[in-house]
């Protein structure tokens, strides 16, 4: 193979809660992202008890995509997108999450959005739950610490699969499912209670989410056997800090903990290392006898994953030279440069990740997030000269091609994150921009929301047109 497959899925990725806005329009309910205030680099976003007047919640308006999706999708078509990864806001379909009947106005919105994509030949890649579950499910049931969430999620999935069975082929069950460990609010609606065993709660919630994912895969295949349903995983690419065997073993343990999620997604069973981890930490996870069968019957068709940066792992916990990244802890690699937000830029790490995953699981891989968060400047003539982003993306595309051409990895597609500027999930900032399309809005919510094409817009258009040959 000397070129990428003709059906390679070039596109971009966003999330409903970070781009749509219209947080209280069309019958939409309050989500866990709607109660997150703005933060900044190094300052955590605050989770409030409901909506408090006078505080700024950046996800409420976000990038205004809910009102502008037709013009935005037209811009994606101008770039030549083959696919568009987005998510459905659970709270547009079931405002509280525990209703029996869906909100028709919310369903109609996604009907129109998907129709617009298909009109331009753009395949929707749809994440079912992407960091915005209903806030009511948190208040009433405790979020994903409660097994009842499986039934609510399945009712939601059934509604989507039936409604959009002829419009959406590619699905992802949960965004970055392994984020339930360490950062459980956004994926699981879990805010720890005083004295609560955090690890116990996180791994219990993880089990319920994995069962729900497997049930969703099985149900989706029953409704439309042509569905391609994947899991989505935040990949913690890292290296042992030194050749000290203690550092190497620490790295092995880190990957074992993370890969537990993919072992269940792909093989339908927990690895033995996971049971040892539970035993060593005195954790007892409640399961039902039928869960083992469910997990076996609901394995995924492909692995979707996010990759932005890498870090190093060391056995010495006293080292303070911590790195920053996509909610993953680690230490700085002295051989790599970092972004403005301290995320270490490592294009070769993407090739390494592709090889690790394909060697281990032997199913198709889909890079559904990758990109550079940076401060962009809108010039007086309306231009945005983001050569740094082009350089970042070019180097990562080069490594994807090497993984395919030289290593034999099966890669389905590539959807860089935040193809239209959106609200940062981690910090709530707008100035941390990823997109090919600039959105006129600042960190305080001021701006016209007008769209402007960055230099990277034209670069990516040529990349797609040439199927990755001209980069």
TrEMBL record:
Keywords tagged on the record: Glycosidase, Hydrolase
InterPro entries, alphabetized: GH (IPR017853), GH_1_N_CS (IPR033132), Glyco_hydro_1 (IPR001360), Glyco_hydro_1_AS (IPR018120)
Active site residues per record: 369 (nucleophile)
Pfam family, one: Glyco_hydro_1
Gene3D superfamilies reported for this sequence: Glycosidases
UniProt-listed PANTHER family: 6-PHOSPHO-BETA-GLUCOSIDASE ASCB-RELATED, GLYCOSYL HYDROLASE
Family the UniProt entry places it in: Belongs to the glycosyl hydrolase 1 family.
Stated name of the protein: 6-phospho-beta-glucosidase
Organism expressing this protein natively: Lacrimispora amygdalina
């Amino acid at each position: 193979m000397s070129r990428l497959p003709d059906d390679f899925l070039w596109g971009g990725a966003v999330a409903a809660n970070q781009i749509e806005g219209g947080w209280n329009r069309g019958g939409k309910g309050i989500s866990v992202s709607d109660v997150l205030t703005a933060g900044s680099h190094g300052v955590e976003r605050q989770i409030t008890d409901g909506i408090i007047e006078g505080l700024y919640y950046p996800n409420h308006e976000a990038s205004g995509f809910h009102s502008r999706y037709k013009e935005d999708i037209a811009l994606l078509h101008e770039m030549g997108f083959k696919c568009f990864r987005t998510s459905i806001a659970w709270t547009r379909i079931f405002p509280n999450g525990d209703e029996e009947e869906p909100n028709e106005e919310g369903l109609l919105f996604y009907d129109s959005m998907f129709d617009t994509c298909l009109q331009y030949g753009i395949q929707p890649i749809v994440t079912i739950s992407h960091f915005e579950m209903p806030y009511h499910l948190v208040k009433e049931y405790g979020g994903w610490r409660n097994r009842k969430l499986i039934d609510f999620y399945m009712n939601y999935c059934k509604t989507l699969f039936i409604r959009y069975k002829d419009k959406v082929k590619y699905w992802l069950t949960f965004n970055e499912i392994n984020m339930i460990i360490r950062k459980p609010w956004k994926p699981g609606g879990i805010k720890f209670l005083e004295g609560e065993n955090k690890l116990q709660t996180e791994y219990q919630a993880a089990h319920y989410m994995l069962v729900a994912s497997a049930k969703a895969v099985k149900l989706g295949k029953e409704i439309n056997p042509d569905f391609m349903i994947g899991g989505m995983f935040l990949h913690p690419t890292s290296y042992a800090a030194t050749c000290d065997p203690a550092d190497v073993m620490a790295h092995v343990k880190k990957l074992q903990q993370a890969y537990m999620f993919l072992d269940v997604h792909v093989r339908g069973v927990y690895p033995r290392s996971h049971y040892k981890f539970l035993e060593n930490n005195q954790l007892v996870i409640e399961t039902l006898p039928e869960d083992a069968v469910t997990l076996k019957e609901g394995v995924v068709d492909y692995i979707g994953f996010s990759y932005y940066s890498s870090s190093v792992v060391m056995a010495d916990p006293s080292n303070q030279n911590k790195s920053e990244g996509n909610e993953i802890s680690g230490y700085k690699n002295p051989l790599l440069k970092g972004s403005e937000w301290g995320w270490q830029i490592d294009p070769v790490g993407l090739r390494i990740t592709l090889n690790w995953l394909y060697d281990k699981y032997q199913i198709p891989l889909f890079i559904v997030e990758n990109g550079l968060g940076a401060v962009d400047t809108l010039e007086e003539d309306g231009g945005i000269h983001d050569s740094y982003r082009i350089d970042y993306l070019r180097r990562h595309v080069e490594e994807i091609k090497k993984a395919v051409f030289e290593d034999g990895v099966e890669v389905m597609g590539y959807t860089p994150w935040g193809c239209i500027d959106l609200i940062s999930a981690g910090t709530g900032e707008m100035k941390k921009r990823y997109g090919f399309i600039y959105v006129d809005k600042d960190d305080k919510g001021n701006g016209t929301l007008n769209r402007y094409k960055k230099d990277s817009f034209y670069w990516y258009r040529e990349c797609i047109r040439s199927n990755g040959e001209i980069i």
